[in-house]
Amino acid sequence: MTAIRARSATPPIPGGTAGQRASGGWWIYLLLILGVLLMVGPFLWMLLGSLKPQAEFLVTTPTFLPKAATTDNYQRLFSQLDFPRFFFNSTVVALVVTAGNVLFCPMLGYALAKLEWRGKRLIMGLVLATLMVPAGITLIPNFVLMRNLGLVNTYPGLILPFLVGPFGVFLTRQFMYGIPNELLEAARIDGANEWRTYWQVVMPITVPVLATLGILTFLGSWNSFLYPLVMAQEPNMYTLPVALATFATGQYQADHGMLMAGSVVLVLPVLVIFILFQRWITEGIATTGLK
Amino acid sequence: MTAPALVRREATRGAAHVAPRHGWRQDLIGWSFALPFVILFGVFLALPILAAFLFSFTSFGLRDITNPIGASVVGVDNYAKLLSDAKFWKSLGNTVYFVVVGVPLTLALGLVIANALSRGITRFRTAFRVGYYLPVITSIVAIAVVWRFLLNPDFGLINLLLAKIGVNGPNWLANPALAMPSIIAMAVWRNVGFAMVVFVAGMQAIPSMLYEAASIDGAGRWQSFRYVTLPMLRPTILFMLVITTIGYLQLFEEPFVMTNGGPLDATLSVTMYMYQQGFQFFHQGYASAIAYVLFVIVAIVAFLQFRFLRSET
Description:
The complex is a heterodimer of chains A (291) and B (313). Chain A has 291 residues and is an all-alpha fold. Chain A contains 13 helices and no strands. Chain A has helices spanning 2-9, 26-50, 72-79, 83-114, 120-129, 139-149, 155-159, 166-177, 181-189, 194-223, 226-231, 240-249, 256-288. Chain B is built from 14 helices and no strands. Chain B is mainly α and 313 residues long. The chains are: A mainly alpha (291), B mainly alpha (313). At the A-B interface, helix 1, helix 2, helix 4, helix 5 and helix 6 of A face helix 1, helix 2, helix 4, helix 5 and helix 6 of B.
């Protein structure tokens, strides 16, 4: 809550307000840099490891840097294993899930924020209540449902349960509540019906929130594991995390270089998205407090 | 920041929207906006939550999957069995261990870093924030695979560094006493950036004049933190406590990839045990009971903490 109020009151400019005035010395920078190295270190280790030939893992004193860097691990990932397919599966699922959330969640968000209708309170209560439900609880019934619909090991089976979520409703509703009613009244007086008001007045203002929602939904879907683990039963439908975990705990568990390369493939797109949109991601999380 | 915040915001702003006519027409418009969401939400989220509850009172198994109605009702047998299931208690104990050690560590470190970023330094804030946030957005599976190598006794980076200072590092993940601490270390490493970002936002809301007044009164760095930052940040801290606890109670990917619940079930979590029962042994009725026990624990924790939060502010 404090976060939400803060955002409108003080711009998050480094060193901007008096309260943000620095009072620290060089040692704080030093500690923070050490901390960042600790954060980034494992990723470097992953990247360097993915370039090492298998033989370099088995020597008695391994080195941090690869001695004879090779792309062999990546080549095997894409020829021996079907990583292009897994990458494609992850991309399709994440894109459709994102589209569903960005389309449907703000619609309900608007209806909850700005419209009066019977059943509104009930729906709002239900949606808020499910914010806390552990993901594992819907796993078995959804598996049974998909099995009976013949959707296990299909794209719809991986996508349908995540096409909407309470988080998106919460995020958009909260934002739309702050849109002045005068703005909507003006559109109505001009003869626009609710749908036109929604598409032409409300949605354009909501774009930044939708961007945050879209990015967070994409990342969540890209990284999700438990549900696809259950629903993707054959390798042809594996998403990247399922494929990586299956190989890492199965027959390839000693193939260190290839597993590191697989981790890079799984992490890299997310890193690119994060670096491009980091402001929206961290601000969005800070204002909602939800991942 | 969720339910109570909405209620409070509404109270200060008055009625949501002027409603000229309140009739079926408006109901129709409202529902037309709500319907796509409500259908998907009902079929894939609300109904499954109810179905899991019903399953937990049956002996639902592999042959019932194609005919769920035919599963035989066994009353509270699954729950009774849980009470005497040593493996379940072990998994619950492990999960509580993970939460009780992991949550305070994550929040405390997040607070320290957030404080250093907002009050200790003036430059490179964005760079630091990106650095600390990096692990949060990456796949736990990938991180677990990488950490498994970092912790490898023969060629992992951690033992490599320990060897440099003459310490013979242990086999972290194969030692029942060290496996869970290793997983906790990884979880703290991954989530500390999330706590940091939320705390930084909370700290930006603290009026600067409070710090000015404190420094006029002669407060040092520690005293401003103790008597200004901490009390003002209390709602944010409590909120993070709820969110992090709920997340940590659902521990799954880390032990799945790193230890498969071992050694000697030392890292078996409740969600992992549910997965094993449901999808390796196909005792879906029993697994649903496990899921519901976890659900109830999460709900109680959330309820207690939110109540605490509301009475505090």
